[in-house]
Amino acid sequence: MSIHATSSHSALAPLIERGLSRLRAASPQAAALLEDAAFAARVAKVLLASDFALETLRRQPALLDVFAHDDGATSFAPPALQAGEASGWPEQLRLYRAAESTRLVWRDVLGLDDVDAILAGSTRLAEACLQLGLEALETEFAQRHGLVRAADGTAQRLVVFGLGKLGGGELNFSSDIDLVYAYPQGGESDGARALAAEDYFARLGQRLARLLDEPTVDGFCHRVDLRLRPFGNAGRVALSFAGMDQYFQREGRDWERYAWLKARTVAGDIEAGEQWLHSLRPFVYRRYLDFTALDGLRDMKAAIAAEVARRELADDIKRGPGGIREIEFLAQALQLIRGGRDAMLRERRLLPALRALMETRQITAEDGEALIDAYRFLRKLENRLQMLRDAQTHALPEDPLDRTRIAQGLQYADWDALVAALEVKRARVAAEFNELLAPREHHVVPGALAQYWRALPASGDAGVLAGSGFADAAGADASLRDFAQSMGVTGLSDGARARLDRVLPALLEAAAHSSQPDAALKRLLLLLRAILRRTSYLALLDEQPSALDRLVDVVARSALLAERLALYPLLLDELLDTRVGGPMPVRAEMRRECEAALQEDDPEIALRLLNERRLALSFRIALAALDGRQPASDSTRQLAWLAEEVVRVVLAMVRAEVVAAHGSVADGRFAVIGYGSLGGEELGFGSDLDLVFLYDAGSAAISDGARPLEAGRWYARLAQKLVALLGAVSGAGRLYDVDVRLRPDGAKGLLVSSLASYREYQLTRAWIWEHQALVRARAVAGDASLLAEFEEIRAATLSQPRDALELRGKICDMRVKMRAELDRTDAARFDLKQGAGGLVDLEFLVQYLVLRESGTHAALLAPRDTQSLILALESTGAFDQAQAASLRRVHAWFVAQGLICTLDRRQRLLAESDALVEARAVVEEAVRARGLSFEPPLAS
Description:
By secondary structure, the protein is of the alpha/beta class. The chain folds into five domains: 71-284, Beta Polymerase, domain 2; 293-434, Nucleotidyltransferases  domain 2 (Four Helix Bundle (Hemerythrin (Met), subunit A)); 442-576, Up-down Bundle (Four Helix Bundle (Hemerythrin (Met), subunit A)); 638-798, Beta Polymerase, domain 2; 804-929, Up-down Bundle (Four Helix Bundle (Hemerythrin (Met), subunit A)), CATH 1.20.120. The chain contains 41 helices and 14 strands. Helix 9 links the parallel strand 2 (177-183) and strand 3 (224-225). Residues 450-940 are annotated as: Adenylyl transferase. Pfam families: GlnD_UR_UTase, GlnE.
């Protein structure tokens, strides 16, 4: 149908006048109200837009009085459906629905409410009618058949799920309502005429549908569509929750994930329904980024396009190109892809979903606002099309008079002006939707490597690999042949194999052009073996060329990240996370991410979720370090923050567990102290955590639970569980290895020290090396007051007066012994950490000066990290400005080189270079200038 302008303005005045005349004739009161010219003009606008409103006002003229007084600002009260008067229920519901719908027309046409409010009002109206009808029918059924009892004897109710726009709270004016019926358990009703639960709830649901749907002399209430239930029209009208579970586990299809994304319990046992919907979430939202959702979307789009072509629906603003469905599908596809990882995207309502997609940067703010604007435009137009005659239509009218009425009612000069505005909106929507489905076309790899892969394992020339840049072409050829004939590949479904045949040639091409082709290929094949059974990951690489290219770049440059990706493929998601290239997570964001695990009731799920968050955040930090987007010291600090937040969350978990088993210790306190790189906020990738535990409680304190423990044992149990849980292996690996050997008296000492014994030990019995360790020690978790008292003990210990000569001798002796045992420097390579002039020499120098000067310079007590300690020592005069700057620069270089080695799984052994020679010279000069010698004495 071609859209063209038709002038029908001359017909509008008679149409409006006829409508006003009919209203005047409806009742004397209506005639009196219409004597007011201003009010009559408002009524005329409504009559222009809606024949349905005219008919309702004619049949219920008292509504005019309501609108004259408050412009329909208040919803009408629903009717009371009396038991025993079932014959009157249809009329009551239909008159109520007509009156409330006319109120919505009035509010919309006169510009008193925006389209969002009208959609919400239509939704509330449908819910009210559903709930009124169901409650009335339940009373009737209970009298006739009794109640269906659960196994524990409690009465069961029907659960009514609203799908589509009803579930999303965005019902259009004359929409049908998509319902699915369920019930919690099987069983039988307890009345004189007992029914099995299946029959009872099926009959109840059918009666509810007829009560709302069947036309009477008063029209209909709501059209009911039950075709979205399991197995469609062939399925049972109502299923138990167990039957629903079984269906979705075995039969659930991609399009149903889109349908159930919006599902909401709208009537009946709402609490039970919402609990069941929570259990359905893994079907709707997969744990990983799920680009297989696009397959379902393509299938649905193709079916809709065929329907549009077959039925000539190009001018259908819902199903046609650039229509409402495309906005809905675009948002829902992005939600399904990422909603398993980002709870913010699990949103039933479309506009909040689009805003969440904007906030998480899955769509740009500009695109998101354009889609929101187009959606509101289309929904307002859709409502006006339906308000005209209460018809479930989405097609632009062909009648010239209807066109003029719609255009003028929407404040457009004529039909052409409205259509011009509409086409702008639809073009923008269509462009965005088509872009979502376009990426697959980018994966055509026509080169020799693609032909080589597709010839395997039967043939294929290894010379192609050599010519493409692989140094060990024979080894690469053998690995690829082995992979091609592995069970993982030969057992793939046709669809998954087709994806692999697109993905692997693209990976080969990218690896060939990477910095390390052979290493990249070896690492990529390990990853592919790990993800072959998870088609969502193949889909990710197939659909997103940017992820594929990023993957190859990362694995070529980092053996550590390649290993982590192979072990935990969920990290592939991070390659597509738009936050990866943006600002790094701040401490508060890390806290929120980690504390989300505390919302889970199941300890295993909570631990897995916490570990997944830790893996994802550390992966982001690693990518920033690999790309050089931030200084290495920032990365080590962020890793320490992340570890601290993990410890805090795990402590909360184990504290709840110990309290549940043994009760609480009244006025007891517990603290976790981080030593080493955790305390100094210089944690590396894969570093263990040096932890010390303190407690404080009354000497006779015992816990108040069913199995009480005295305080020392209670806190020892708490610390043991904390260490165990940090090291427990879950599906996402272990959180951290923990080292507790720095506690007082080392391995011979108690796992948890009382505050008093810790104070006494540090002030009277600790070795100098333990005071060195205390320089970097920092309170990381536990009771705030005890953490503060630890800080007081630390300050008192570090600021003790010391004999400088004795201190220097002990420091040097310790360093000489360490170097003799740990330095791996050889003729070709230098041990970055333990070698002469290396990182530990610099740390010993700083710690010596802090212990020597803290008694007179309190400023040395606050910092823990080496960079800040050097600055503090400069402020005391221990270093001059130039020395401090040189030492900080050298320290930063050491840390950066260490991270580079760790990221590529290399030992921290460096080949000789000018930069290394210069760095060592700076450290060795500073050590000598302070009278220290870390070299073993010469043999006589």
